[in-house]
Write a sequence for this structure.
């Protein structure tokens, strides 16, 4: 059986597939595979191991052929895959949700919040520029993180892990918004479920953990920024289009919010949604930008590679997928 991997990934998964005696082919360039190349390379595949930067739609599945059994996405999200096209062809879709990734992304989320509160990145630049002339009681004053209120929007595995760190590690109060109540979060973190508007109104730090759906695209826009405290910080480690970046730029320019930490962007790899205006996220010192690396640890990325491979091995062996996309 033939497996095609759309980009180089850590070797744990590749090793597992080869040990299972599958024929493994992969695109070896460290860049997004072109559409033309993708359509050519998937022909005859029984499995595709894709990345979130690959659009896997009906055309790709048709190009692969009727023997295609699974698309294993090397990511938690799977908005890059046409689930309806997969279902109509009997193709299983999986993702790489797992404890290693959950904990790593939660760590990165908390790191962004603390760096914003203590102006770490800004202070680093200030020091490197040799502007530091001596201690001062008013130099680069930040704000406390400890004991504040965190608002978590979306309390799946990652959102819950972020809340647990905030409450148990930093004695924060947790309020959250979700489609359904999270009894575990309420019990473990004494969290309170509120309508999203009330979360935005009351939180000092707002953390986004929702999938990208039509209902969550631009979930945070002008109306939502208007509800937030002027001292609030927004952190997004979910999907870029969940935040309306034009509205975010306006909120930053008018000092509607205190700052933002972004690991994802609306038009990746572009950092700004509108390249025709004169506003750029990078011009704001109270914004921290990281290049979609919330899960970028050796341990997490190897675990993702292995899990994607294990899903493929399971499905091609006639067994249920370990982590079906849902």
């Amino acid at each position: 059986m033939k497996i095609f991997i759309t980009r180089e990934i850590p070797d744990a998964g590749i090793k597992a597939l080869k040990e299972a005696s599958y024929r493994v082919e992969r695109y070896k360039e460290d860049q997004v595979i072109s559409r033309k190349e993708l359509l050519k390379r998937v022909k005859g595949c029984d499995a595709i191991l894709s990345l979130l930067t690959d659009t896997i739609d009906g055309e790709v599945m048709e190009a692969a052929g009727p023997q295609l059994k699974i698309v294993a996405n090397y990511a938690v999200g799977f908005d890059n895959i046409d689930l309806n096209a997969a279902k109509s062809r009997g193709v299983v879709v999986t993702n790489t949700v797992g404890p290693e990734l959950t904990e790593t992304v939660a760590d990165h989320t908390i790191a962004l919040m603390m760096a914003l509160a203590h102006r770490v990145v800004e202070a680093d630049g200030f020091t490197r520029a040799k502007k530091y002339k001596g201690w001062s009681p008013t130099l680069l004053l930040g704000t406390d993180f400890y004991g504040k209120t965190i608002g978590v929007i979306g309390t799946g595995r990652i959102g819950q892990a972020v809340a647990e760190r905030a409450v148990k590690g930093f004695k924060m109060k947790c309020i959250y918004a979700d489609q359904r109540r999270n009894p575990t979060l309420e019990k473990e973190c004494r969290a309170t479920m509120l309508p999203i508007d009330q979360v935005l109104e009351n939180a000092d730090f707002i953390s986004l953990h929702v999938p990208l759906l039509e209902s969550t695209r631009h979930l945070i826009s002008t109306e939502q920024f208007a509800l937030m405290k002027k001292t609030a910080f927004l952190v997004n480690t979910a999907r870029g289009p969940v935040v309306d970046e034009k509205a975010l730029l306006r909120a930053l320019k008018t000092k509607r919010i205190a700052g933002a930490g972004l690991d994802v962007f609306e038009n990746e790899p572009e950092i700004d949604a509108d390249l025709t205006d004169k506003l750029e996220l990078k011009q704001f010192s109270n914004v921290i930008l990281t290049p979609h690396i919330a899960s970028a640890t050796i341990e997490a990325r190897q675990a993702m590679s292995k899990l994607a491979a294990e899903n493929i091995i399971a499905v091609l062996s006639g067994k249920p997928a370990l982590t079906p996309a849902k």
